[in-house]
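Reviewer 2 asked us to include a model.

Predict the structure of this chain.
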Amino acid sequence: MLMDIFKLGLKDIWRNKWIFLCFVGFILTVSLVLAAIGATLVRLYRQPTDSLEVKRYYETVPISYSFEEMDRIEEQLNQLFQEGGYGSFNINGSDLVGEKFDVFSTIFVGELEKYGDNRILWCMPSQMFSQVHAVRSEDIRIVNRENIDLDIVKRINWNKLPEEGDVFFELTSHEFRDIASFSPDVSQWCELVESSYFSKEDRKTGLDTKMEEIFQQGPIRLYKQSLDFKCKDEMYFMRHYMYVYGILSVLSMLVCFFLFLKYLYSKLCEEYRIHLICGATMRSILGRNCIFILAMGLGSLLIMNYLNRFQWNEMAQWGLAITLLWMVALGIATMAMLGSKSIGTKIKGDM
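Predicted model (structure tokens):
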């Protein structure tokens, strides 16, 4: 009997395949929109309040083929980052330092240690670290991640954290005591400046202004973009108007949902009436209909997870919750319609 119900459910899907596909597309679209709204709002309100300060992003733009003044700029930047500020740049096998150790590394500048005053930290994969350790073991001091301000590391590392297996360490010798000792090229100086971040204390002493003044003359210009997350950017819009958008979206989707449902069951009710006349019970009809509903929900969920690369994240969680909600709503609406007088039959089936 269960197999017969399953076959009849698949038969309903095949006979109404275009309506079925439209309903799957509708549920998928609704779920994606609501999941995006929900995930965005949750992420916004998980963000700490102190992160909503004014953030400055820098962009370096060459304006000349002559880099005669770069020596002055590099010297002043080197002095400035000894006084304060944070930043990062990469070295690789083509650099002077990279050739010496044959490694790729990210250099973090600033007092990132919670209990230390070192301003230069190396970070590299463990395999490459073993090469450096074999040569300079006596000069290496490994720094635990727990002792590092990872929020600032993420901010000056293009909004991403180093891999879990990467090693932070300091070279205690004076060979690499400041940025200039790495002999960075122009692109690395620009990378450092564009990733730079100044704390409130640094801004009070005017370090950010000093860096901007360094680039007022020379072959490179520094452009600053300020984003006030309290009142001027897209996050203000999301915090204040996303609810309205979400409510209007849900209302419009509910209207479409009932129109879809009414058209769908105007066709299916004829099938169900014939099934009842042939001796089927209402339990069989509901089971047959559940196959139809489950196929729609699972099809939508499968496509959504494929688009999400089958990752279990906030988007996937919201998508699963909303899809289950749609399936429950469809089930309740189905029971209401099948139990109403609109079926138009007086044949009584066992529940």
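The first helix runs from residue 2 to 15. Strands lie at 54-62, 87-91, 105-109, 120-124, 140-143, 167-171, 220-228. We have added this to the supplementary material.
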